[in-house]
Amino acid sequence: MNYLTVENLTKSFGEKLLFENLSFGIEAGQKIALIASNGAGKSSLIKIIAGKDTPDSGKVTRGNDVKISYLPQNPYMPEDQEVMDYLFDSDNEFVKLIRDFEIISLAHEPDKEQLERLIVRMDELQAWNFEAKIKEVLGKFGITDLKQKIAELSGGMRKKIALAKALIEEANLIILDEPTNHLDVVMIEWLENYLDRQNLSIFVVTHDRYFLDNICNEIIELENQKLYRYRGNYSYFLEKKAERVANEKTELEKAKSQYSKELEWMRRQPQARATKAKAREDAFYQLEDKIKNVREKDARGFGSDMQRLGGKILELNNIYKSYGKQKILDDFTYIFNKGDRIGIVGKNGSGKSTLLKIIMGEAKADKGKITKGKTVEFGYFQQEGLPLKGDKRIIDIIKDIAEEVEMKKGSLSPAQFLTYFNFHPNIHYNYYSTLSGGERRKLYLLTVLLKKPNFLILDEPTNDLDIATLNRLEEFLEYYRLKKLEQKEKKSKIRNAKSQKSIPKAPIAIGVGPKQVSKKPTYKQVKEYESLEVEIEELETEKSELMDKLNSGNGSPNELNLWSKRIGIVMTEIESKSDRWLELSEIVEG
């Protein structure tokens, strides 16, 4: 059954063409992911499909029985509205019934007669299963105070409430824009399982590669204003895209050869004969456009050295921090060593960002001492975004930091560096305010990395970044071997951190919590733990090498196919061994 049909959609943002003449359909049971680089128009396309925006031309046709729920990337929520009113603001009869039931149940003196009528009505509509579904969703997201005002909520909690609202609608097509942002690992896994067991069609924008692989059965890629469809999960997409890139490279080489011949012909052609060869001239200019529009991958990579790091790095001694009755840090002590790569994991609200802010001096500990080494230069990537005073041109933001960027092979100008990170030359002189949310995050990340820090602190670095940028970020971190303190909940990045520590339920960070009696690890467990560290590192190296091969555009179609299959196997092994490593780390490290 066809739920929705997109026909010849075209959309521009100012003078920038986002996409042109896009056509595709969404069928019952399909779980489709939309992949594109930052600024390519993903959110614009998803808004049009959800009926929240209009295209410049083209149309979207929805089936008569199709009900759509939609999670925007940045949901609008009235500040003075209560959580209950926001969640249950719906035309759905079940949702209205549950809302009335909750309002009366939560009243100081419930009206018994009215409550009985609602119970009878819920029996008639068999709405109790729906109520159980709502309670499951709200419970998993930690939404307990339905009377709380929106204005009192953090940004992360707002996104979770908006996601909960999208999930509890009785829709058969759900459209999600970056649903895993602000969710911890447990919540993401629950969301994956929840969506997998629902009888839903899904259209999602996400850069969480594990989520893509586990949920989606089709990938749509938006590239250079065109759509490419891949009927499989993310691993299948990688394999088939590699084949497409190989074919395009062959066509590009043919086009270059033909272009050289045509260019020579154009130079020899007498002006008087120009009108006799009009068709050939037109073909030449079309070929010229084709050559110019294809931007090949730049494999130069980062290459400048970070600033020297001395013997003393950072010491946190007996740190205490509370918010009201909630303990965030309780007698927390940790000494950072050169070369550490640490991931901080924990439930939402457990204090991960607070710890980072204390380290940076942006929040004060209630008690304790922080000692920073003299040679430490922090690079701090915050959730809040680029701290920019006024609006500036994109290229000037880079020039303010470096007039030249050193790479492994040579150097790049600010314009070349922006292009390397997929900022099209056409927008280099545009103002920061014109960028999409993902492009702003990406530019902010570049400003942090360009300052050559020797102690890098990343607070949710992968939120809103496209997959190409995530690969560049991993390349940067691998090359520099930076000290990395990274607050990250998503598995895809935590698994790349060498040492991983956790924040338990509330009080403590980096594996320090209320003192517990731990079992002494066996010799066999210690040896397995140490062996897994080596094996995971070797697999990560192999994965990096395979990604380099796939991204290079070199290799025959057969080689590309073999590399793609191998990288899928490697990623599965990394996941399996990392899970076992985490399990053993709790025992070995206590």
Layout of SSEs?
Elements: E1 2-13, E2 16-27, E3 31-35, H1 42-49, E4 57-62, E5 68-71, H2 83-87, H3 93-106, H4 112-125, H5 128-140, H6 155-168, E6 173-177, H7 185-197, E7 201-205, H8 209-215, E8 218-223, E9 226-230, H9 234-268, H10 278-293, E10 314-323, E11 326-336, E12 341-345, H11 352-360, E13 367-372, E14 378-381, H12 394-399, E15 405-406, E16 411-412, H13 414-420, H14 437-450, E17 455-459, H15 467-480, E18 483-487, H16 491-494, E19 499-502, H17 523-552, H18 557-588
Parallel strand pairs: 3-7, 3-8, 5-6, 6-7, 12-18, 12-19, 14-17, 17-18
Antiparallel strand pairs: 1-2, 1-4, 8-9, 10-11, 10-13, 15-16
Helix pairs in contact: 3-4, 5-6, 9-10, 9-18, 17-18
Beta strands, count: 19
Distance between the termini: 54 Å
Number of helices: 18
- Calculate the mean pLDDT score and round it: 78
Fill in the CATH topology of the largest domain.
Rossmann fold
Strand order of the largest sheet: 5-6-7-3-8-9
Query: What is the percent of helical residues?
Result: 40-55%
Word description of this protein:
This protein is an alpha/beta fold and 590 residues long. It folds into three domains: 2-236, Rossmann fold, CATH 3.40.50; 243-293; 314-515, P-loop containing nucleotide triphosphate hydrolases (Rossmann fold). The chain contains 18 helices and 19 strands. The strands form five sheets. Strands 5-6-7-3-8-9 form a six-stranded mixed beta sheet, with helices on both faces. A five-stranded parallel beta sheet has the order 14-17-18-12-19, sandwiched between helices. A hairpin with a 2-residue loop joins strand 8 and strand 9. Helix 17 (523-552) packs antiparallel against helix 18 (557-588).
